[in-house]
Description:
This protein is an alpha/beta fold. The chain is built from 8 helices and 14 strands. The protein has helices at 15-30, 45-56, 62-86, 96-99, 119-125, 151-162, 196-204, 212-221; strands at residues 2-7, 34-39, 91-94, 101-103, 112-115, 129-133, 136-138, 144-146, 167-172, 177-178, 190-191, 193-195, 225-229, 237-240. The strands form 4 sheets. An 8-stranded mixed beta sheet has the order 3-6-2-1-9-13-14-12, sandwiched between helices. The chain has a two-stranded antiparallel sheet with strand order 4-5. α6 (151-162) packs parallel to α8.
Amino acid sequence: MLIVQKFGGSSLATADRIRMAAGRCASLIRRGHQVVAVVSAQGDTTDELLARAAEISAAPSPRETDAYLAAGEQMSAGLTAMAAQAQGIPAVSLTGAQAGLLTDGVYGNARVLGLRGDRIRRELDGGKLVVVAGFQGVNDAGDITTLGRGGSDTTAVALAAFLKADLCRIYTDVDGVYDRDPRLYPDAVKYPRISYDAMLALARQGAQVLHDRSVELARQYRVPVQVLSSFRPGPGTMVLEDSAQIRPDLFPQ
């Protein structure tokens, strides 16, 4: 199987958590699967970078802001690849541009258009874990573009769609999709499965577990998405066209 796994900022906030994320990927590779890991910037790195930019300019160029902010995810990608290598797994980190993720030219809120080249496939076929910096791509001019808040979700689903992956996993700090924020409402109910349309409605109402553009892409390309906790075991929530289409227990943990 080809599995895309996305790790959010909280899942990579410390060295131990980076090692844990790399270990999840390594475990799948040792069992014969191909894995692409998409990573966000660690913890609050993006907010910290924005604060530093504000010290330099009250109205920075959107192009330069994207070039600057993309560094957070690139650092995470390099560290995750290093962690995998330390666990005996060949790995390579790629920027969005190196991965070939083509976008339009809207700096700060770009939309994904396609995947250019075969770099990811070649690295996978060489037996490597491919770690891709999320939240970013490249436009026709060769400039770095960012995909907006939550953009690493979109990167992961887009890569799963264009690579025809069997599954896209989103690791986060909650253990699935709930009808309400479980961090605020203890009686919130978790969905074992939810349709693309229902998930999209929740995302547009403010649910932060998945970015709405990632759900749109998943629906367009019929990508099965599994939302899981980085910190607690369990099958999480499957996001599908038909809520009965796939059983989570059919996929490797």
